[in-house]
Amino acid sequence: MSQSLDRALTLVAALADETKTLDQLAEEVGVHKSTVLRLLRTLESHHFVHREGARHYRLGSALFDLANRSLEQRDVRRSAEPALAALNERTGHTVHLASFEDDEAVYIDKFEGHHSVRMYSRVGKRARLHCTAVGKVLVAALPPARREELARSLEYPVFTAGTIGDAEAYLAELDRVLACGYALDATEHEDFIHCIAAPVRGARGEVLAALSLSVPTMLLDIDGLLALVPDLLAAAEEASVRCGWSKKEQGGTSR
């Protein structure tokens, strides 16, 4: 990668969380302000960066346009969208779609719950593999040798009293996911949210994504959440059919 391109991408990443000044950006990139200013002007001319006032910079509109166009190119997102929308309308709870990329779970679609409690998740955000329902579904779908290799390479930071803390426990959990056809996050990542997820499959039966239903514990206890599993599985099956999966050809449910 060219040095200028590397620096320009570093500048874009540095602006992801908040607006920053020229001085702040020069310090982050580690080069003189004149070099950063030249790069910013180029990025600004293509609308990747926008200058606010005399001193501050933020991400520009071109990035959001590219992000939306990239998401629209994802066949699974486009195909599964009606099933996600229907599940959200039927239950009133937050629905996510996540895919597996570079050994990470990434949210690629979200329908916000109808209640006042909002989740911090967003499209494009990474989800932990060991303590989220979508992460468990996506890792469980890997070939056994790859699944074990990944499980043993993960770090296991503890977020709540229920977080899985080691590879052996995680592998056992993945076996349960495969046996049940869905995964459960029992307040393992956030102590006020629990979640269930199921696989969305493609024409060959491969897992393309994980569809999840997330509910604040103040609205539903664990029994109430598990009572929604049939709705979740029906939505995952509908999404799978829309992605080319055939229940008849695969000989069973989409799990």
From TrEMBL:
Molecular-function GO terms, alphabetical: DNA binding; DNA-binding transcription factor activity
Domain HTH iclR-type: residue ranges: 2-61
Signal peptide as annotated in the record: none
Cross-referenced Pfam families: HTH_IclR (PF09339), IclR_C (PF01614)
InterPro entries for this protein: GAF-like_dom_sf, HTH_MetabolicPath_Reg, Tscrpt_reg_IclR_C, Tscrpt_reg_IclR_N, WH-like_DNA-bd_sf, WH_DNA-bd_sf
Domain of life: Bacteria
Entry keyword annotation includes DNA-binding: yes
Keywords, comma-separated and alphabetical: DNA-binding, Transcription, Transcription regulation
Gene Ontology biological process terms in this record: negative regulation of DNA-templated transcription
IclR-ED domain segment(s): 62-245
Protein name (database record): IclR family transcriptional regulator
Annotated source species: Prauserella cavernicola
